[in-house]
Design a protein that fits this description.
This protein is an alpha/beta fold and about 325 residues long. The protein contains eight helices and nine strands. The model is unreliable at about 1-10, about 295-300 and about 315-320 (pLDDT under 50).
Length: about 325
């Protein structure tokens, strides 16, 4: 018997660069340089600051990251959370973080920055965003955008202009950083009082990456923790929903994200306290009633049901407006 093997040549292959807690979920620049040279990485796509870990590349590390664009690769950076950084000293409030600070020549450095009004100005409904990069790329994007959807809403573009005035921007940054830092510190304090461990406290964004491994099984996995909080009309996001798993090579329940959940300290303080109170109730039940009533030994077939729960929770009508999203 003769068998003919057909080989397909893939010109574009996705590779996930894993960020580990031992390096505070930061991109290892030296390893990335090696990957560019040995694997021929043409484009690096990254969010900075990052959801869900709440970490960011800053200073010399960010400068080194931008320098990678001069090593035959392109950087595509999402900087939507660039104002959500929390300096230790109040006199440092009002700063922001951007790779633009380290670009030497906008047309020669192959760096593409995506930002907008959605997060920093808290105006997601306006759908006004922008891209910074080499002229030839911006020209191509403009043509594509014009063909696909006509571009951003013109009246809202005009309305956005005064929001970009430098003094207004500075005051917005200061107010935002004070407000969100206070909420971050409050949530971290309450989590610590509950015995819930945050291995790497967030230095940016409004997210907390919470490790559950020290809790008794099955409450130590993100899906069970999510389900028990759902009974309290409170939602967190199971860590496996943030797993980058090209071609689904890895079983999600063997994922390094399986024992994590993501919390948000974006809601108002009173809502945060209601959500944290719900966590306390779940932990109290586990302590005094034992674990026999917890979890359903979720398998991969349960993923759709959990995803449906996440979608259902966003439908406020089905929750009488009383659910807390964290």
């Amino acid at each position: 018997m003769r068998v003919k093997l057909l080989q397909r040549k893939y010109s574009n292959i996705l590779t996930a660069l894993r960020l580990v807690p031992e390096e505070k979920y930061k991109l290892n620049i030296e390893q990335t340089k090696k990957d560019i040279r040995t694997q021929g990485l043409a484009v690096i796509v990254a969010s900075n600051p990052r959801n869900p870990t709440g970490q960011a590349i800053m200073g010399e590390d960010l400068k080194s990251l931008v320098a990678l664009s001069r090593e035959k690769t392109t950087l595509l950076l999402d900087e939507f959370y660039s104002w959500y950084i929390y300096p230790e000293n109040e006199e440092d409030y009002g700063q922001s973080l951007s790779s633009a600070s380290y670009i030497e020549d906008v047309d020669q450095d192959s760096v593409i920055i995506v930002d907008g009004l959605t997060k920093n100005w808290r105006l997601p409904g306006w759908r006004v965003c922008w891209v910074l990069g080499p002229k030839n790329l911006i020209s191509a994007l403009s043509q594509s955008g014009s063909f696909l959807d006509g571009g951003a809403n013109h009246p809202l573009q005009l309305a956005a202009i005064p929001l970009l005035e430098s003094e207004h921007v500075k005051q917005e940054k200061i107010a935002l950083q004070k407000h969100f830092k206070a909420k971050r510190d409050h949530v971290l304090k309450r989590l610590d009082e509950m015995g819930l461990r945050v291995d790497i406290p967030p230095t940016s964004t409004f997210y907390i990456w919470l490790n559950l491994e020290h809790l008794p099984a099955p409450l130590d996995n993100g899906l069970t923790f999510f389900e028990e909080l759902l009974k309290e009309k409170t939602i967190v996001v199971p860590g496996i929903f943030f797993e980058i798993n090209p071609s689904h090579r890895r079983d999600l329940f063997s994922s390094p994200c399986h024992h994590f959940v993501r919390l948000s300290f974006g809601p108002p303080m009173k809502d945060l306290d209601m959500g944290l109170d719900a966590m306390e109730r779940v932990l109290r039940r586990a302590k005094y009633e034992g674990m026999r009533h917890f979890g359903h030994n979720c398998k991969c077939s349960e993923m759709k049901r959990v995803a449906d729960c996440l979608i259902a929770f966003t439908d406020r009508k089905s929750w009488d407006g009383k659910g807390i999203q964290m």
